[in-house]
Amino acid sequence: MSANSQLIAEATAAIHRLNQIKRRHPLAFAVLWSPDCLACCVSMDELDYPRHQCPECGVIEARTSQRAAVAALLTPGVRRGWLMGGNRSGKSQGMAQVAVAFALGRDHPNVRLWADRNGFGPELLQTIPRGGCTVWAVAIDSADSRRYLRPKVAEYVPSDAFWRNRGGDGEASVSVRGAGRIVFKNCSQGRDGFQGDSIGLCWFDEEPPGQSGLEVVTEADFRLVDTAGRMLFSMTPLTGWTPLLKQNVKSPSADSVVRKLDSLDNPHIPRSEMEVRLAK
Fold it and tell me: How sure is the predictor about 1, in pLDDT bands with cuts at 50, 70 and 90?
């Protein structure tokens, strides 16, 4: 075998090993997006929300960032966090990474690598429970849980995680040996379905609808008391200023954070394609 052939074989084997590690530990390789400069096509740095600056040309623009938004939601002292965005903005993907990080715990190697890769320092890392916790991932109904939430979480949990009722109706869960678990619930279970447990994080994907939705949020909030946990929401507001949004987003409390994601800032989707659809 020639020297070049040997190098190619070694590189191929190294790539194969790296891909195996990525499949086993996906969260460790997950990178939250920051907006690209439209002129230079390089990732911009956040100055202060929502201002971002290009490190190449120096332009400063009001943009949105998935990485900066998640960092804001992990800020110490935050009890409720709201991540608002349109379709394909990456709001649910970002929250899924947070949910898995909380379930694994801050001492887990995957979480430490994820935090380092995304520039989350010790102060943010300390907001994630040691040893992991129970996380509730809440969809509007069981169908949404099956189609959207479970597949998103599955992208980031270790490959040896244990699933229960992964593709079925009703509640499902995924747990990691030596860490915590994520329980997939849905608002159609009603207030009674959110009683009893003590959890470290509750993530609602989309706004719980109607009066029953408000009751579900209230009941879920009590499940966070023992752990001083936090409640996070990712949603595309479609029905205006509902009572829940008026209370928490229009007039946020001191322990709440609201961040927005613009689909046009997501560098993983074609901007021109999104502009055509948003113009309709």
Answer: low
For residue 47, how many C-alpha atoms fall within 13 Å in the half-sphere facing its CB? 12
Whether residue 46 is predicted with pLDDT greater than 80 in this model: the reply is yes
Do the beta carbons of residue 261 and residue 64 sit within 8 Å?
yes
| 187 band by pLDDT with thresholds 50, 70 and 90 | very high
User: How does DSSP assign 59-79, residue by residue?
Assistant: -EEE---HHHHHHHHTSTT-S
Annotate 184-225 with DSSP letters as a single string: EEEGGGTGGGG-S---SEEEEESPPPHHHHHHHHHHHHHTTT
DSSP per residue over 40-62, as a string?
T-SBPEEEETTEEE-TTT--EEE
The phi and psi torsions of 88 (rounded to 5 degrees) equal: 70, 20
Taking the C-alpha atoms of residue 70 and residue 91, their distance in angstroms, rounded to an integer, is 9
Token pair recorded at residue 251: 């007039």
CA distance 193 to 22: 36
User: What pLDDT, in 10s, does the model give residues 115-141?
Assistant: 999 999 999 999 999 999 999 999 999
Tokens of 189: 């279970």
Amino acid occupying residue 110: N
Do 27 and 114 form a contact (C-beta atoms < 8 A)? yes
If you average pLDDT over every residue of the chain, what do you get?
93
Query: Cα-Cα-Cα-Cα dihedral of 147, 151, 153, 156, to 10°?
Result: -170
**Mean pLDDT value across residues 225-236:** 95
CB 91 within 8 Å of CB 84: yes
Asked if residues 134 and 200 have their Cβ atoms less than 8 Å apart, the reply is yes
Reference 81, options 227, 182, 253, 231; nearest CA is 231
Q: Which amino acid is at 259?
A: R
